[in-house]
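Backbone-to-sequence.
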């Protein structure tokens, strides 16, 4: 680690991507693996030296993520917090694409640039995860890791394993169910079921291989199986089930809810020639298509 006072750069920018959980949600909170992919939509943070600490972040739903990041960063690296922070976003926080973890990671990266501090990706993850845990008290950290490492990663709780996977252009359709869910509440309310978590782990391990081989058919089947297990855990909704069901009927290889459930979004793995049909099917049952690219 190197620290210098940055005399030349008074204003810097950094960004981090949103994410989509592909396989393994909920089980990953209890020590199991998951697979998550970053999307092309990003959150941008601009930091400049100022005479006081000020945050101008209209798109951030909870400013504590920015404030806590600055607090922990300035304590750890012994820098002052007289800065003005502005944020910009490609996506709305309502979609559940991980805006809190993306803004946390982008803020850490911007502060590193401003104060010319070089830290490793793992250090960015550890600090970002600490911020998320301080505020939410709960969570595996998969979203922080996705914002730091980008691409598609295999991740085990709290960053015990963070393994980038060589997966390209996963053909995904994303449908927003129209209701925002509280991840914290759903995670807290969930009754852990180790038998189901073991089955989810098997799916994650198989998906790790099928995704790397670009075997979308197999990966789609695994998504259907994963969704069924999430239904058994009680975190799906009628709307999400319906959206997944019509996506598969319209020709998707497979579909599942993505994230905590209780609302938010679903994903479907779809061959490019069937995308239009799957999208219409989702819209016809009241879903909203979110246009983002994955695998950046
Ligand atoms: O709702 P999201 O997209 O933030 O995903 C939550 C995923 C969980 O596994 C349920 C929680 C976690 O922290 O891993």
């Amino acid at each position: 680690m190197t620290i210098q006072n940055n005399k030349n750069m008074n204003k810097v920018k950094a960004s981090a991507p949103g994410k989509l959980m592909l396989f393994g949600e909920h089980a990953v909170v209890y020590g199991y693996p998951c697979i998550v992919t970053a999307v092309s939509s990003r959150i941008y943070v601009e930091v400049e030296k100022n005479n006081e600490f000020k945050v101008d972040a209209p798109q951030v739903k909870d400013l504590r993520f920015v404030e806590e990041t600055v607090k922990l960063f300035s304590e750890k690296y012994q820098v002052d917090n007289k800065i003005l922070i502005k944020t910009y976003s490609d996506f709305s926080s309502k979609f559940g694409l991980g805006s809190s973890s993306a803004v946390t990671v982008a803020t850490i990266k911007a502060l590193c640039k401003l104060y010319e501090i070089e830290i490793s990706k793992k250090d960015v993850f550890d600090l970002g995860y600490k911020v998320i845990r301080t505020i939410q008290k709960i969570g595996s950290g998969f979203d922080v890791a996705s914002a730091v490492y980008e691409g598609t990663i295999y991740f085990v709780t709290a960053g015990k394993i963070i393994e980038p996977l060589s997966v390209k252009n996963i053909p995904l359709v994303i449908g927003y169910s129209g209701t925002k869910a509280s991840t914290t509440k759903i995670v807290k309310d969930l009754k852990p079921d180790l038998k189901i978590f073991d089955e989810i782990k098997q799916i994650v391990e198989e998906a790790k291989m099928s995704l790397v081989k670009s075997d979308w058919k197999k990966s789609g089947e695994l998504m259907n199986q994963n969704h069924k297990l999430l239904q058994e855990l009680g975190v799906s909704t009628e709307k999400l089930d319906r959206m997944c069901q019509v996506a598969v009927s319209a020709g998707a290889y497979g579909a599942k809810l993505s994230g905590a459930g209780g609302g938010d979004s679903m994903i479907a793995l779809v061959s490019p020639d069937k995308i239009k049909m799957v999208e219409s099917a989702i819209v016809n049952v009241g879903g909203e298509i979110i246009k983002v690219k994955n695998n950046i």
